[in-house]
Design brief:
single chain, about 325 residues, alpha/beta, seven-stranded mixed sheet, five-stranded parallel sheet, elongated
Length: about 325
């Protein structure tokens, strides 16, 4: 087994991970970033990005992540394409094992493993993802100004997405498999007062319908096949876009029982900080952010994590020198 030490090790390669790597490298901390299997995170399945500061024209999500990768490498971060299989936070330095057989140790660990939207699991969902199917109204709602859209879900996320889209789209239909929402009452009251929002109870999406054209023409959603959850009746409706809002799942499997989690499963951090309940371990991006879940906020948290890791290492070295 190969062994390697890094003052700062970062797990995850989304905006939080790459930003942490950039800041840590500029602080001469020789960071190693282990990218995981989906290098670039959720932005790799996003097409047009219009809300990341610094770009006057829309950019492609995969291109943005490629630029972050190159920037991190340019300032001296080491990017490793590997999968972390286990972490030991009970020892100092921390010990991280990977699928390739390499074992890393580090003085500070930044967890930036992200989160993934929960999907419906339909084959057609993959076909139209980024081309009429989205899991983020804040990210993609702008493209549906004056159009008809559908939101699937019944919790706070779905109602919040519908309310946001109602300010942009011509009409919003919320499709929910039950006959009542799980969302907070105040959110429901706001939704029911919106003239351009209607709710279709007791239905689920059975299939996404659209045009699958040959390249370079992109596919596009034209409608949905819906199934009544009580009667089994199947109907069709036309729509320009589908927003799946059935929740997100943070990638915390490696840290279950090792790091404190919020009631909803996201990693806990101290207020206004990326500090976790284990000294020397920091969490940044969507693995801890259950509110905003934006690329720019993830990048900001990555910056915070690197600065806090730098401070932590400096304090540890000062204590060590004082003890000698």
């Amino acid at each position: 087994m190969t062994a390697k030490h890094a003052p700062v090790l970062i797990i995850g390669s989304g905006p939080a991970g790459y930003t942490a790597a950039i800041y840590a490298a500029r602080a001469m901390l020789e960071p190693v970033l282990i990218s995981g299997m989906q290098q670039g995170g959720q932005l790799t399945i996003t097409t047009d990005v219009e809300n990341y500061p610094g770009f006057a024209d829309p950019i492609q999500g995969p291109w943005l992540m490629e630029q972050m990768l190159k920037q991190a490498e340019h300032v001296g971060a080491e990017i490793v394409t590997d999968l972390v299989t286990s972490v030991d936070l009970d020892v100092r330095p921390f010990r991280i094992s990977t699928d390739s057989g390499t074992e890393y140790t580090c003085d500070a660990l930044i967890v930036a493993t992200g989160a993934q939207a929960k999907w419906l699991g339909l084959p057609s969902e993959q076909t139209f993802m980024g081309f009429g199917v989205s899991a983020c109204a804040t990210c993609d709602g702008f493209f549906y100004r004056g159009k008809d859209v559908v939101v699937v879900g019944g919790g706070n996320t779905a109602v919040e997405e519908a309310l946001y889209l109602a300010n942009l789209a011509k009409s919003v239909t919320v499709v929910h498999r039950r006959d009542e929402f799980r969302a907070e009452r105040i959110l429901q009251d706001r939704l029911f007062k919106k003239d351009n929002i209607k709710v279709l109870w007791d239905h689920q999406v059975d299939e996404i319908v659209g045009d699958v054209r040959k390249a370079p023409l992109p596919p596009s959603v034209t409608g949905l096949r819906l199934k009544n959850t009580k009667t089994g009746e199947v109907t069709e409706m036309s729509t320009d876009g589908l927003f799946v809002a059935i929740g997100h799942a943070p990638a915390v499997e490696l840290f279950a029982g090792k790091l404190k989690q919020k009631p909803n499963g996201y990693l806990w951090t101290a207020p206004d900080s990326t500090v976790t309940d284990v000294p020397g371990v920091f969490a940044a991006g969507d693995v801890t952010d259950d509110i905003y879940r934006q690329a720019v906020t993830a990048a900001g948290l990555g910056c915070m994590a690197a600065l806090e890791a730098e401070r932590y290492i400096a304090e540890m070295e000062a204590h060590r020198e004082a003890a000698e």
